[in-house]
Hints:
The chain has 710 residues and is α+β, with helices and mostly antiparallel strands. The protein has three domains: 2-40 and 172-391 and 502-694, Up-down Bundle (Multidrug efflux transporter AcrB transmembrane fold); 65-170, Multidrug efflux transporter AcrB pore domain like (Alpha-Beta Plaits, 2-Layer Sandwich), CATH 3.30.70.1320; 400-501, ACT domain (Alpha-Beta Plaits), CATH 3.30.70.260. The chain is 62% helix and 7% strand.
Amino acid sequence: MFRRIVALPGGRRAKWVVLVAWIALLVPAFSLAGMLGSVQKNDISAWLPSSSESAKFLAAANKFEAGDTMPTIVVYARPSGLTPADLKKVNADAVLFQQVPDVTGKVQLPLVSDDLKAVATIVPVRVGESGWTGIAKVVDKLNAIAGTDAGGLVSHVTGPGGYASDSGKAFGDADLLMIIAVIVVVAILLFTYRSPTLWLLPVITAVVAVFTSEAVIAVLARYAGIVVNSQSSFILSVLVFGAATDYALLLVARYREELRLHVDRHEAMAQALRRSGPAIIASAATVAISLLVLLLATLNSTSGLGPVCAVGIVVALLAMMTLMPALLVICGRWIFWPVRPTFGSLPPAREGVWSRVGKVVARKPRLTWIGTAIVLGSFALGMIGMHAEGIPQDDQFTKTTEAVAGEQLQTQHFPAGAGNPICVVVNSSTSDNVRLTLSLLPTIATVVQLDAKDGKSFIMATPRAATDSPESLATAQQVRDVVHAILGAEAEVGGGSAITLDMQDGAARDSWVVIPAILLVVLAILVLLLRSLVAPLVLVGTVVLSFAATMGISTVVFDHVFHFGGMDAAFPLQAFTFLVALGVDYNIFLVTRVREESRRLGTRRGALTGLTATGGVITSAGLVLAGTFAAMASLPMVFAAELGFTVAVGVLIDTFVVRSVLVTALTLDLGEAMWWPRRVVPAKPVPELGRELAYIGASVNAAPLEAQER
């Protein structure tokens, strides 16, 4: 029943029904996909653990005007010293800042630095529902005002508002990211297919999958409460486009084989779907379920990423199992031009690169897998130097942005922590005691009370240490310790380095909980799919080793080649999720084919035949996925560059080392034990030419070329 349902999209009438259904679906999907930006949540609460003190602080601060605002700092400087005209302009600008829409509360009086060379104005900008997008518009207006009639006075906008603006603009380059990804994929498909026409169908279907997934996520975000932010939005596009193209490569490869065995292209597609469908569905299910495990994370940015990307994978699967087969059958054999797989024609010679690799591995499989494991293990040693405590503010971008330039200017003339203060909400009856206690701390430069309302007071403390430095994190913890000790204060501490502290704590907890859960889920899926205990353990072990090697390589490259300032606290978990889920993908494609061939040829010959049969298509799939993730480097953000590089390297290691060498060598060494407790032994010895004899038999009965289906 399952195989019959899977084969339906390629039917004579069903193909037209499928095409019309997708066209009807795309009409609203294009408009709904445009809503995705408006439903994103990019405020701080969309990233923090819901149970963290910073999240509780945000809830308590909502009653204050300052609680719904983001401090945005306009810094002016003149190296030779400020002039009276400069101070007059700065004061006049402060009046104009107050008139800018979404500037709420009172713009603070300009603060002159001790060296009389710089002045800073703190502008409270309302975050609002538009998040980073709205803040970016306000920052542009502040920049325009500060830059008017400056007379050589340098100005930059920085602080939390300035960085939010730069982040919003960076994520706004996602369209460029998709263009680069499409160009990369088209180039790989042209090289793979050697056809000027065939590449169109996978790309068209993948683009349809991207738009449809964005539409579904937009609807779920608006009406079902699913959380999506700029980070999960651009990862969604990359993942769906890459995964959909991978599934297309596997389907087309099997369809091409079946076209040589069937004169009716509809029957060829039905057989291709029956043979490749279970592996593709199992692969997509593994990725989607692994991503859903991220719901166990406490960081909202991580837990929200899971369902968003899982929905995208499901949409990609549906598109490639319905729309892609329909388009292939509608187009006919000519889509493969100039080399059409005609009925009865022989496939290309099997003596290719992967056949030769298999023969080399087969000579000494045990020595091969032990040596490969040692090499990968040595790469994993690079993880010793990994620092995933967060990326400092001024290192978040791969280029110097407006906010970074502003912070550099600010730190030259003001206390290092002035750009991102620690904020406290306390009971008003204890506010004097809290302010006095904080002012006595040697790590705090200034303490001011900004507001008081409904028995609560809003206090802001400026650390002496630079934002996100180890000293500033220690200061945030120290502030929490002292204010929590004040009887009756009921203090909640957030803002500044307190947020970073909570992000680090949440990420550490998530890694300990989510990583084992993902491994157990993947293992369970493989056991159900392969009906074996040994093979799933082998596959999971190889993928974990691949992940460790990839992280080791990435750590060394980030530190000593790219000179990045660190890794986001959630980066190791997110990288692990993608690398394990996508790495198991290729192992599923290989091992399901090996098991199929083992039923005819035995495990040893089945392993070599499976490697040869899947080598080309899995290599192309790996290159496609690596290329799409590598395109993330086009975004000027360190997090995007790190994730793109790591996933790309990991996919390439899985494609060229783990699948082709390590898994094949282990399968050859274990033999029939690979499938324990089941036995996969051919009932009768079958010559390896069995499949080729089918082609020869088909060619005997083949109709003339001009009589075959086009």
